[in-house]
C-alpha cells in the first residue's frame, strides 16, 4: 500500500496529466464493473459489457449518448451510480481529488494546488509554469475549489427547486417529481443530457418553463468554473473580468445567437422538426437546440429527421463546445476566439493578437492550433472507422462522432443500432474528448524538451 501511495504521489507531482488520465480511466472501469452487475439493471440481469462500458464512459465523460433506455433499463442502484459518475465527471477528477484532500487534511498544500490548477488551466500541464495573469491564479485555487463545491450544490439545488413544483403541477407524484427533478437538474448543469423519463423530452417539447430551466442549467455549466468563480468575485468584490472571462462570455453568447438563427432558418418549414410547431414557438425550440450544441445533449425534436445542412451546421457548433474547465466538451469557445483573433491580426498586418486592451502571446495560438488539429484527427479517425463498419450515411456518422468527441449527447441513435465494435470506438472518442487534447498530448509526451540552441530560420510557402 505504501509503495502504491508513493507511486501515485510521484506521478501526480511529475506528471499531473498522466495522473489525471490514470484516475479518470480507473473511475470509468470501476463504474463499468458496477453497471455490469445484475443489481444495476431493473430486470436483475447482467448488462452486456459493451453497454455497461459505453454508459460508464458517457456518464463520467458527461456526454449523454446511450445504447440502452435510461428510463427503464437501470435499477435505482444503477441510476444512483450513474448520477455519482456524472457528478464526478462534471466537477473534474483532479478538482475532486483536491477537494477531498482539502476535506481530509483541512489544508491545501502546494501539490494539491498544482493538481487542481491543471484542471483550471491545461497550459500548466502542457508547458509548466505559466503567467499568472489569467482567470484563476495559483494563490486563488483554494477559493476556486470552494466555489466549485458550493456552486455545484447550490446551482443543482436551485434547478431542482425550479423543476419539482412544475412537475407536481403537471400531475406527477411527489417522489418521482423530486427524484427525476434532481436527475434533470444534475444532468443539465453537468451538461450530460441523460433523460430519466420513458418518453424522453417529448412531454416538454412545448413546455417553456422546463426548456428555460434546463437551458439555463446547461448554459451556466458550459461557462466553466473559472468563469463562475470570476462572476462570484465580481458580485462580492467588484473585481475586473480577465480576458479569458470576457472571451468566454462573448463567444458563448455569440455562438448561441448564431446557432439559433441558423437552426431556425434551415428548419423553419421542415415538418418533421420545427415545421410542425406553432410559428411563435419555433424560435424557442431553435434557441434551445442551439444551447444544447454547447454540450447539453437534450433535444425536443428527432435529430435524425433534420436536414443534412442543419446537421452539418450543428457539427460545427458541437465541435467548438463550451468554456474551458467547464462541464462542456469540444475544443472550447476560447480556442475558436484565439484562432479568429489570429486571422484578424494577420489580415490587418498586426504582429500580435490584441483584444480587450490586452496582448495574447503566440504560445496560446500554438496551443489553440494543436487542440484543433488533435481534435480533428480524433474525429476523422473515429468517423472513418465507423463508416467502414456500419456503411451509414456520412452526415449521420459524422454527427454522432463529433457529438461523442465534444461530449455533447445529441444523437441520430447511431450507437443504439450499431454493433459492439462501434460502441467501443465511440467510447474511446468520448474518453479522448473529455480527457482533453492538451492533457492527452502532455501525457503522451515523455518529457519536456529543453533546447539550448536555435536552428537557422527558413520560411516555407504557406497558402
From TrEMBL:
Entries under InterPro entries matching the protein: Cat_transpt (IPR003445)
Cellular component, GO, one term: plasma membrane
Membrane-topology annotation of the record: Multi-pass membrane protein
Keywords, sorted A to Z: Cell membrane, Ion transport, Membrane, Transmembrane, Transmembrane helix, Transport
Compartment(s): Cell membrane
Transmembrane feature ranges: 19-37, 49-68, 80-104, 144-169, 208-231, 243-264, 316-344, 364-389, 424-446
Molecular function, one GO term: monoatomic cation transmembrane transporter activity
Coiled coil region boundaries: none
GO process annotations (BP): metal ion transport
UniProt keyword annotation of Hydrolase present: no
Protein name in UniProt: Potassium transporter Trk
Amino acid at each position: 500500500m505504501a509503495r502504491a501511495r508513493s507511486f501515485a504521489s510521484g506521478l501526480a507531482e511529475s506528471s499531473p496529466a498522466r495522473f489525471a488520465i490514470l484516475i479518470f480511466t480507473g473511475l470509468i472501469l470501476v463504474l463499468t464493473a458496477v453497471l455490469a452487475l445484475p443489481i444495476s439493471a431493473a430486470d436483475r440481469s447482467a448488462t452486456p459489457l459493451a453497454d455497461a462500458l459505453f454508459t460508464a464512459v458517457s456518464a463520467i465523460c458527461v456526454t449523454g449518448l446511450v445504447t440502452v433506455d435510461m428510463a427503464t433499463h437501470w435499477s435505482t442502484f444503477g441510476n444512483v451510480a450513474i448520477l455519482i459518475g456524472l457528478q464526478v465527471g462534471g466537477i473534474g477528477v483532479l478538482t475532486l481529488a483536491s477537494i477531498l484532500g482539502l476535506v481530509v487534511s483541512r489544508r491545501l498544500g502546494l501539490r494539491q494546488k498544482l493538481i487542481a490548477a491543471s484542471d483550471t488551466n491545461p497550459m500548466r500541464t502542457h508547458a509548466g509554469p505559466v503567467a499568472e495573469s489569467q482567470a484563476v491564479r495559483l494563490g486563488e485555487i483554494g477559493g476556486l475549489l470552494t466555489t466549485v463545491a458550493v456552486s455545484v450544490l447550490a446551482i443543482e439545488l436551485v434547478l431542482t427547486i425550479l423543476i419539482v413544483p412544475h412537475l407536481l403541477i403537471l400531475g406527477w407524484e411527489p417522489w418521482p417529481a423530486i427524484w427525476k427533478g434532481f436527475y434533470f437538474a444534475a444532468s443539465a448543469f453537468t451538461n450530460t443530457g441523460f433523460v430519466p423519463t420513458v418518453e424522453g423530452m417529448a412531454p416538454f417539447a412545448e413546455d417553456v418553463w422546463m426548456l428555460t430551466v434546463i437551458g439555463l442549467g446547461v448554459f451556466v455549466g458550459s461557462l466553466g468554473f473559472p468563469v463562475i468563480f470570476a462572476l462570484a468575485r465580481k458580485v462580492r468584490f467588484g473585481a475586473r473580468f480577465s480576458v479569458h472571462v470576457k472571451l468566454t462570455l462573448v463567444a458563448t453568447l455569440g455562438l448561441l445567437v448564431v446557432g439559433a438563427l441558423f437552426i431556425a432558418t434551415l428548419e423553419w418549414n421542415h415538418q418533421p422538426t420545427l415545421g410542425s410547431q406553432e410559428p411563435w414557438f419555433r424560435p424557442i425550440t431553435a434557441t434551445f437546440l442551439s444551447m444544447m450544441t454547447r454540450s447539453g445533449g437534450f433535444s425536443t425534436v428527432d435529430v435524425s429527421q433534420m436536414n443534412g445542412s442543419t446537421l452539418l451546421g450543428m457539427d460545427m457548433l458541437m465541435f467548438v463546445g463550451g468554456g474551458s474547465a467547464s462541464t462542456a466538451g469540444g475544443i472550447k469557445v476560447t480556442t475558436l476566439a484565439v484562432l479568429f483573433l489570429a486571422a484578424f491580426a494577420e489580415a490587418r498586418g498586426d504582429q500580435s493578437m490584441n483584444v480587450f486592451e490586452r496582448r495574447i502571446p503566440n504560445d496560446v495560438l500554438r496551443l489553440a492550433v494543436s487542440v484543433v488539429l488533435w481534435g480533428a484527427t480524433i474525429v476523422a479517425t473515429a468517423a472513418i472507422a465507423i463508416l467502414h463498419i456500419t456503411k451509414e450515411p456520412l452526415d449521420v456518422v459524422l454527427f454522432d462522432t463529433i457529438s461523442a468527441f465534444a461530449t455533447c449527447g445529441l444523437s441520430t441513435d447511431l450507437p443504439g443500432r450499431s454493433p459492439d465494435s462501434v460502441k467501443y470506438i465511440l467510447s474511446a472518442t468520448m474518453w479522448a474528448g473529455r480527457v482533453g487534447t492538451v492533457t492527452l498530448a502532455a501525457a503522451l509526451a515523455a518529457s519536456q524538451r529543453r533546447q539550448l540552441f536555435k536552428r537557422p530560420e527558413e520560411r516555407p510557402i504557406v497558402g
